[in-house]
Amino acid sequence: MLGLNKKDTTLLIIVAALTLLAPFILNPFPADSALAQFNAGYPDLMQRFVIFGIFAIGFNILFGLTGYLSFGHAAFLGVGSYSAVWMFKLLSMNVIPAIILSVIVAGLFALLIGFISLRRSGIYFSILTLAFAQMSFNLAYSVLTPITNGETGLQLTLNDPRILGVSATADGSIPVTNLFGIEMRGTYEMVAGPWSFQFNTGYYLCAIIMLLAFYLAVRIFRSPFGMMLRAIKSNNTRMSYTGLNARPYALAAFVISGMYAGLAGGLMASMDPLAGAERMQWTASGEVVLMTILGGAGTLIGPVLGAGFIKYFENIFSKINDNVLHSWFSFMPDGLEDAMVALVYPFIGKGWHLTLGILFMLVVIFLPGGLVEGGQRIMRAFKRRKPDETSSETTTEPAE
Amino acid sequence: MGILEVKDVNKRFGGLQALGNVNLSVVENSCHAIIGPNGAGKSTLLNCLVGKLIPDTGSVMFDGQSVLGRKPYEINQMGISRVFQTPEIFGDLSVLENMMIPIFAKRDGAFRMHAVEHTENEKEIVDQAEHMLDSLNMADKRHFHSASMSRGDKRRLEIGMCLAQNPRLLLLDEPTAGMARADTNNTIDLLKQIKDERDITIAIIEHDMHVVFSLAERITVLAQGTPLVEDTPDKIKGHPKVREAYLGETA
Amino acid sequence: MSKSNLTRRGLLKTSVVAGAGVALPTIFTASSAAAFTNEPTGGSVTLGFNVPQTGPYADEGADELRAYELAVEHLNGGGDGGMMNTFSSNALQGNGILGKKVEFVTGDTQTKSDAARASAKSMIEKDGAIMITGGSSSGVAVAVQGLCQEAGVIFMAGLTHSNDTTGKDKKANGFRHFFNAYMSGAALAPVLEKLYGSDRKAYHLTADYTWGWTQEESIVASTEALGWETVNTVKTPLAATDFSSYIAPVLNSGADVLVLNHYGGNMVNSLTNAVQFGLREKQVNGKNFEIVVPLYSRLMAKGAGENVKGIHGSTNWHWSLQDDASKAFVKSFGEKYGFPPSQAAHTVYCQTLLYADACERAGTFNPCGVAEALEGFEFDGLGNGKTLYRADDHQCFKDVLVVRGKENPTSEFDLLEVVEVTPAAQVTYEPDHPMFAGGNLGSCNAGA
Amino acid sequence: MDAIILQILNGLDKGSAYALIALGLTLIFGTLGVVNFAHGALFMIGAFCAVTLSKILTLSFETVDETRTDFLGNPLKVKTPYVEAWFGPETGGMLIDWAVPLAILFSIPIMIGIGFIMERGLIKHFYKRPHADQILVTFGLAIVLQEVIKYFYGANPIPTPAPDALTGSFDFGVLLGFDPNAVIYPYWRLVYFVFAAIVIGAVFAFLQFTTFGMVVRAGMADRETVGLLGINIDRRFTIMFGIAAAVAGLAGVMYAPINSPNYHMGMDFLVLSFVVVVVGGMGSLPGAVLAGFLLGVLESFASMNEIKSIIPGIDQIIIYLVAIIILLTRPRGLMGRKGVMED
Predict the structure, then answer these.
(1) Interface chains of chain C (3 or more CB pairs under 8 Å)
(2) Is C104 a domain residue?
(3) Continuous H helices in C263-323
(4) Which parts of the sequence belong to the Leucine-binding protein domain (chain C) (predicted)?
């Protein structure tokens, strides 16, 4: 189906089902229960899951396939966001032109940086990309404030021209982002017994775009072009002695992944029209590297899992405070309750970084292939229990 | 006029004269061996032929065109393929994919953005690759992870990948170095078979005299960066200067 | 995604079919049954406390959280009531807000606009917060204020000192209790004149981002009005940790006062470096060389240690104030936590009380009603004397403190002493003052 | 002219810190082939060794002073450090005053110990893993280390002053014939520079003149060959990791009086130190030192008003700009060897 083989089609269908049903899947706990703290099915976080999923999928096209480790990819995301917000300020609140512009601008920016950085390989390439991104961040924060609004981030105001729209709505507010009139922030809440589920227009736009991005990534992975990219990672020497010019291949991968980042940035601005300079900082670039490695570099689904994992911790664990802990452990006798709270407290709320750091270490120590490997091990254990007619794996698909 | 003409090539590394006035002519469809003791400049010469090094002076012509200043991939596209001392294959890829890449390179050139086609739908390429693997007796290994194969199989695959491009000149850099006797003999048989079946010129650098004398039609002896003699294998065997400079040492 | 999720989904599907009939639209939508965003329907109301819990301002954030918890306790009738007893408005009963018990959720701003907005959004979308408050930087305050305007909830800013928050970036749903850079300048200038005379040459080091610039502009304007000359203004990168190369040329520039427009870690390091270079022992133009830190906080003073001694700056509030309100607050905070509150804690405590009080007076949680109750509200008894929440820009006008690093501290908290309490009238400016121009409150948004 | 001399001094001082951190990073990379993202955290822990020692020395008992009151109006509890009670105010006060230099002795065994534990417990298992995995695990470790420090010491910077005798500044300009106040420089920064020079010199001498050093240098050049000689190179590498950790820690200890230590100071230096290492050339110790000083000096020059007025914002980007230019003109950094980290 869709030019994919059976296995990939299955994968695509699973991913599509997971994303489209995310409002249910991410809200497994009844809204009033103590565990509702762990529900992630609210629009902002769901949007972030898929947007960072797109970012990581794109990053993986570069890093997972060619092995070039860019430490400056956040710059493209930032540039995409700025372009989109400028489009909202100048043209209209429709998200389509904003997203298109952000992809184009990020692509051009990636072409420029990639052209220079790809003259070197290995860690030298990483440092070059890092240097470009840090320069972008530092300048965006300070000297380029007229374009980026510096520390505060680029925001919409009531005085923006918006040639094809209105500067301010009739009741004096800033108009909201929309897709031909459908507001991105529109949310419908479905209450089913003790559960409640939120369906957000913006999320579904992001989800559909992510599915397209994922589909495109699958096609790239399975194409001769994708094979060439893996060949670069595997053996650059053989590549050139086979009559292939590795540079344009790597550059194409770099630009494509830069455009994915721009797309993610544009979507972020479309969901929430603000573009902050921190999006370009090295920590943001590092985050996408971590997402990809954590999920499983070079696999199709890994980066999406990694993105979800990190964003979940950032948004859910950071919000647990000692009051919540006390309510969880309130069934225990007082002394024990306090002891439990004291024990767990360092790992939640302001300690969420600590938990994340420990999990990074555990995953990389015990699951060298990232979360995908964890999944594979579970599947294998599952298969072994059932009598299985398929022969045991003699080879693992290199790209899977 | 040979297919490969090396004229007055000099190469210095700092104070070391790696190549001094090398002249070499490889006749089309022949097998030409270059031998010499360690440090004689064999590898330097080879690197000058494929664009990895640029000679200080002199010229290297392939089929009437200069190769100097061209990048390795451009030289490959001219029809020169190289086999390395340690097999250079795409270790992370399957054997079949390894074989497909040179065929793609032959068909599409140095770069083509074929990002939407599905590799499995490239019937013509897959067929050619499988055919090539068949002829190497590797068809059963087509889905193997190539890095996990034996050295002999890797060598076989590498030679196959070079041949899949139908090169006019095949350069072999000590193709049997570090190999077990059986693998060496297999490799010799493979090369003999190639020589017999194809219109191909082979230039080989080799330490193992058994390999050289089984394959070569002409031999150039290099010592201290300069060709000592060039002749047929029989003559070389008995040449006093060669015995003194080279064979004597390694005997 | 593991297998168990798939089975659970099957389960959910059936229950959805059963409950699909009650689907109703809410939140962020144009058409809704609710009158405004997150209208509290049960017996409780949820406030969102959005403070930095990680990153360099984590300690300040932690202090804010303590004050919020204290405020919630007082609102619900617990504790000794703190400043509720001294507050001039008597609308608060100690029975929650409008009879509803006050609950709260917390989030981490990470001192990044993006993260702060994400966390505020999650409080609004997931936890149903009706008001967002907190923060420790102007960038974050402006970003979250914009979000709250869009979402239709009230934003009660925490620590934000930039003129822009109630200047060009002001919003109808946002309110600021904290003072601003202009006020720092206006309060400091007379004291500086008294101490150092009117013939001084000032050299500014300024953090190179929006807040730094507005503070520099404000201080330059007010000191030049005294007759001071500004020798140079130098921008320093935000990421700078070692300021030696910016400090070293100061002495040779002919300046005799160094103004450090830095905050947080930047301020601690630049002040430490300046003292290291021995600037304070030098004589220039026949006068003692002086250093001024326009925005002071006790937590920063603690980081800079001995170096703050004798250095002047301004602050919003300090625990050593002797009015009844401050004493009551210090008492209830100190007894609960064992140390005195910081100005950040004081600000957010006030903001929480002010919000609750406005709801009571308005008789509704509707942001537009609450905003109306806050606009032009005059009150006393929250520690800064008579205070006005000005309707034109939602900025509080109250007394500003000029403080000095104490020479002989008696404890680790006793680092600053109040030199002068500058009356509100002296720091008040016109709403259309050029430093605050360019913005527009817009109209109040109740969401829904 | 005086302004230039001043900025060279500043640059050498900044460069000392960069060079020390980069030196340790290169030692670890060169000997073990590991990209250590936790190296900044080691620097931070070093600084906190100084903080900890000064906290230990100021451990106090409380006596109640009825004549004074605390902020709640209760009688004031006056703290007296135990060391002052034991050794008398004079000696005790002196010990507290000299906490930072004393912390050098205190930190060396601690840092070497941390280095050993890190290498044996974690890094050892990552020699054969891809660099990406090494980055992830050491980055995770860095987060954990800094969060642990934050848990115990808070997020605020903690002032850790230099001994009184070494505070204050020194008028260099007068020596060179300039006007007074033209070139002044803090004593402690001079101490830092000299200290860095001694540590760097000691590391080089150690590698150059001891058998141990020779084996390690051979190991850096070609790990497999040395392994074949039957020398227990792994154990030596463990020791090397300990030494690298100690160098980073010492850099941190001595840095504490320059800027008050805080828990994220390691991350602030991490990116910068990687840039320094790469500009110097991966695996080259002299390169790391050279690049450290070079970037320090250039950064100082870029912050001069004269230069900033020509190119606004240059001080924000100078390090990165220089890194890009050097990497494009010298493919392997200033003194890098071929084939290192290029796969």
Answers:
(1) A, D
(2) yes
(3) 264-276, 298-304
(4) 45-406
